[in-house]
Every structure is written in C-alpha cells, then in structure tokens.
C-alpha cells in the first residue's frame, strides 16, 4: 500500500493529527468565556470518542451539535468543579502558610490537614478526568454524573493516571520543549485519551451502540 494513500496508516495518522489541531482551535475558541469550558470540553470529547471509535464524519458539525445539546448540564458541572477546585486549592494554600508559621503540635496538625487536602485534590482530579467524557456519552443527572465519574475513575485508576500523564506531558512539552506544540494542545490530549477512555466507557456499558443517542 502506498504510504500516502488515503487508507494507509500514515495518512490516517496525519488526518487524525489535523483533526486534533482543528478541534483544539474550536475548543479554545469556545472556552474563552471561561464559564463555557465545560460545554467546550464535553463537545471535544464527544468528537474525539467518535474518532477513536471510527464513527467521525463532519467534526465541526459534530462539535457544535454536542456543544449545544450538552451546554446546560456541562456548564453546571463545570461551575461545580471550578468552585470545588478553587476551594481545595485555596484551603491548601492557607494550610501551607499556617504550617510554615507554626511549630510543634500545630505544625503536625497542619501537615495532616495538607495531606488530607492533597488526597482530596487527587480524587477531584479523577472526577475531572471522567466527568466530561461521560457527559458526552450518556444522559444522567448531575449528581449521578459526578458519582459515576468518581466510581469509574477510581476503579480504572490506570486509565485515570494515563490520561493525567498525557496532559502533563503536553503541558511540559509546550512550556519547556517546543511552544508551537500548543496548536495541538487539548485537542491532541483528548484524542489520545479517548482511545483509553472509550474502552472504559464500553466496559461500564456507558456507550450505547446506537449512534443516534447523542
């Protein structure tokens, strides 16, 4: 098979890379108001999960359809996650300052508080990893979406860690290696992550076989 023929693995790789680049542009543009980050991320995963499952067609149309259909719930979930994240980070910062200013028993107490908050942030990150891909895949209440994100994320911890590492590598590569890689950014992270998340979602019976569900 010709290396540059449409059906070759090399051509398909280039096509998927171009998809991730364009999706990153769409994601970034639709995330600019900040409060729409949840809807934008849900739309992104709605498309990348279809690409991972070879069910993609018009990715721009699919992105905006998913953005509109999931906007309300994804925005609510994002605002909840944002508030919780800011609360945990704020508490961790205050605890760190109080620990630095303390000695003896109080220093030990603040160290334990910090350890608890770090643990809470780990669990928070697990929920954050799964909540928007699940929102892109199923219909459920906000509470159930958050609960299932936690249960699935902790059960399939290897996938949670893998997705987290993918995002960390991209961040480090953009900041310290080659800044223009930012053009791929979250689009490429979501696409690579979707190949791992898709299997988990299938195992948990969260991805219907019927394509017309979402």
Core attributes:
214 residues, mainly alpha, 7 helices, 0% strand, globular, disordered C terminus
Description:
With 214 residues, the protein is an all-alpha fold. The chain is built from seven helices and no strands. The chain has helices at residues 9-31, 37-52, 59-100, 105-137, 142-155, 157-177, 185-203.
Chain-wise SSE layout:
Layout: H1 9-31, H2 37-52, H3 59-100, H4 105-137, H5 142-155, H6 157-177, H7 185-203
Short structural description:
The protein has helices at 9-31, 37-52, 59-100, 105-137, 142-155, 157-177, 185-203. The protein has 214 residues and is an all-alpha fold. It is globular and about 70 Å long.
Main sheet properties: none
SSE-based structural type: mainly alpha
The gross shape turns out to be: globular
End-to-end separation in angstroms reads 36 Å
Rg value: 19 Å
Provide a count of the helices.
7
| Count of beta strands | 0
Strand content of the residues, in percent? Answer: under 5%
**Helix-strand pattern, N to C?**
HHHHHHH
| Helix coverage percent | over 70%
- Low-pLDDT runs: 206-214
Name the quaternary structure.
single chain
The pLDDT mean sits at 91
